[in-house]
Structure formats: structure tokens, C-alpha cells
Amino acid sequence: MKLAVLGCGYVGLVSGTCLAALGHHVVAVDVDASRVKSLSEGHVPIYEPGLSELIQAEVKNGRLRFTTDAESAIKDSQTIFIAVGTPPSPAGGADLSMLFAAAETVAKAANGPKTLVIKSTVPPGTGSKVVDRVKNAPHRIEVVNNPEFLREGTAIQDFMQPDRIVFGANTNAGLDVLREIYQPLIDRGFAIFSMNRQSAELTKFAANAMLAMRISFVNELSLLAQSMGADIESVRIGIGTDKRIGPGFLKAGVGYGGSCFPKDVAALVHELKQIGVEPFLFAGVEKVNTRQKEWFAKRVINAVKDVPNAQVAVWGLAFKSDTDDMREAPSIDIIKQLAAAGLKIKAYDPQGTANAKKLLPPQVQYCASVAECTTGADAVAIITDWPEFITQDWAAIAKLMRGKHVFDGRNCLASGKVAAVGLHYYAVGRPEVTAGAGRQGSIGVVSAG
């Protein structure tokens, strides 16, 4: 099938490329001419494992191309995916202006019946608003919803081996088009769930809000564990092995970030207020997330407050490992708080530095390696759990540091290894391990270390 994808951001790039890999002919459209030129030459503007190689392969075999000519792409395609941004609006909801503009472009350019697939994350009821905007097109525009459930760092796998695929359509004709597009995955046995547009739209928001809620749940519980000598890692195993609960997204840390959870929880808060319902639960999820970042920063500040010209080495800037995405990353608020306290900050991230420079205070010094970042540090603060941080030689790290404080904001380190070389280990919701108290190889609990 001939498909067009409007928007070459994260969702559009991954979705368009994977649709091409399923055998469709895809034209990906973006208004940014330099981005289109770069993509056509095989240069990918985002970091996502495997994406660059897959784009290059699909461009080479002729199933994927990039253009700024939306009108031509729409005319040449049977189905058009909209994957433009829906950022937070000043009022607290989602800014749908780019989505509506894209839909109107489809309506004007349509040279025959078309199916318009909303891939962007949108509030419930948006599909009906899109229908209103395309109803006067010279040809019928069928509007359907196909939410994405892509995790940064594993997006290609998530698309090609999904837990489920959700179809949101209010007519059988719309469902038939979606089934045809995804037939290669249906044939492989992946689950398809069909529902109306509004339900599909709400499903996406509900999934993200549930995951954010679990993170805030365990983070709030971690504060209680910290105060009473309990170990949140043991607790999460104790509850996560209950089949009614499950282990996913119960890892205590510095809070959630990224392009989805913060925006979607905020949008749900807004939508509930719009219908006169006080969003006690979702507003609480937001507040817990904000407090968790503040709490972590305060611990670091308190540890070095009496040290002259104190220096903190921040390991990790991106909101999670295996991405360069800095949108709503916990590191932003944490580093701003450290800077406001007058601390000298050196930072290192394997992929996120370029994007971080646009968002962080100017006094942050960016480093090219863990060693450079850590040299002379009074404290290390781990904010992103990149694999290279977990496998560090802690004896070598201790020699580089001036102080002895290590703050594990992701509960990803072997506490015994850190403490055994003379460093003081602080985790989230776990007992502190004082310098020299650990032993090489000890992990504290059976789960993580």
C-alpha cells in the first residue's frame, strides 16, 4: 500500500520506517527542508538504536523516501498518517494546532477518497474535531486512530513485535484499512484490538498515566522506606511478584520524564477539570514526581554544603538510557537546583549532551567521559542508568574523586562494590552504605544491588 506520514519527528520516523519494513511504500513528509535533506542522505537527527540502519536500508530498496511536498505525497497515497507534535498548551491541555493544520492539508490535497490515521497522541474526542475539519473536502476522508506505544530505546522492537495494536475507528471501512496495513503483523499472531476512536484515544492516555502512576507510587513509598530502614528494592520484589500487580514500572528513582508521561498526565488533569471533575489522583502523580526530583537534589546539596567550592559530577542527562531525548528529563530540574545552591557542576551523557546544552544552566561544564566528569568531584550523582555507569571500576573512580559521596538516583549500582573502595553510597529508598562497609561483589538484596 502507498502511505504518507506527515511529521518526521520521533513517532513519524519510527512508524514510517517500520511501515516500509513491513512492505509498504512510504513517503515521509516534514516542513523542515534541512531535516528532509539530512534524512534522504541517511543522517538521522535522533538517537534510537537500529533506526539509522533501518532507514538507510529502506531508502536503498526504494520503499522509503523523504520530502517537503505534502500535497504531492497526499495525492500519491491511499492512506495518510499524521504524526506531528501535540505539545502542552499554555492552558494545560494539548496544543492541537499542528494536527489540525495537517488534517486540513490532507482535505485540500485529496484527489480521491483517503484514510487519515491519527498517530499523534491526542485527547479523547480529537478525532471528531478532525472529522469536522475535513467533512467539506471534495472527497471522503475516513478518520481513524492508531495510537503508538513506542518506548525510546526499543522503539523498532515495539513496533515490529508489539504487545498489542489498537485500532480506533467508527466505521468498518476504517477498520478494514487498518487491518490491511498491519496484515503482516496480524499474520505473525500479534494481538489486534478494535474499538471506536474515542476509546482508542483514551487508551493511549490511560496507558501512560497508569505507568506514570506506578512510578510515583513506588517513589512516594521509597521516602517511607528511607525513613524507617526498609529497602524499597526488596519491597518492589515483594509486591511485583504478585501476579495481580506485576513488576513493571515499580523501580524507585528520580522520577519520570520524556515526551509522553509528563505531557499526558498533565493533559488528563486538564481534561478532567474541563468536565468539572477534580483530578485528585493524576494531580497527585504530578506532585509526587516533582517532589522526588527536589528530594534527590536536596540530598546531594546537604552532603556537600560545608565543602568549599563543592563540585558535583552528574552522570546522565537524557531522561532514560538509550536515547538522546532531554524532554522533561529529571536532570533538568535537579541540575537547576544544584546550580541555584552554588555548586560547580560537571556532566556527562553518552548521547544527550547536544540537546542538554539547550536546556541546562550555562555554568554546567560538559565532559567527554566518565573520568573527565568525575575528576575532582566531591559527589557523584547518577541520574540516568546508562550501562557504562553500572560497570565502572569503582576503585578507579574513588581515586579520581576528591570527596566520597555517590548518589544512585536509579538504584542501579552494586552498593557493596561502591562502599568497599571507601565511598559512601546513597540510593533511593534504601539504607545508606557507609564507606568501607561493603565488600566487593555484594549487592545488598537479591534483586539489583
Please characterize this protein's 3D structure:
By secondary structure, the protein is an alpha/beta fold. The protein folds into 2 domains: 2-195, Rossmann fold; 200-449, Rossmann fold (3-Layer(aba) Sandwich). It is built from 19 helices and 14 strands. Strands 3-2-1-4-5-6 form a 6-stranded parallel β-sheet, with helices on both faces. Helix 10 crosses helix 12. The radius of gyration is 24 Å and the shape is elongated. Mean pLDDT is 95; it is low at 440-449.
Key structural traits:
14 strands, Rossmann fold, six-stranded parallel β-sheet, 449 residues
Number of strands: 14
Question: What number of domains?
Answer: 2
Which class of the largest domain in CATH terms? Alpha Beta
Share in β-strands? 5-15%
How far the N terminus sits from the C terminus, by CA atoms, comes to: 50 Å
Structural class: alpha/beta
CATH homologous superfamily designation of the largest domain: NAD(P)-binding Rossmann-like Domain
Low-confidence stretches: 440-449
The main β sheet shows up as: 6 strands, parallel
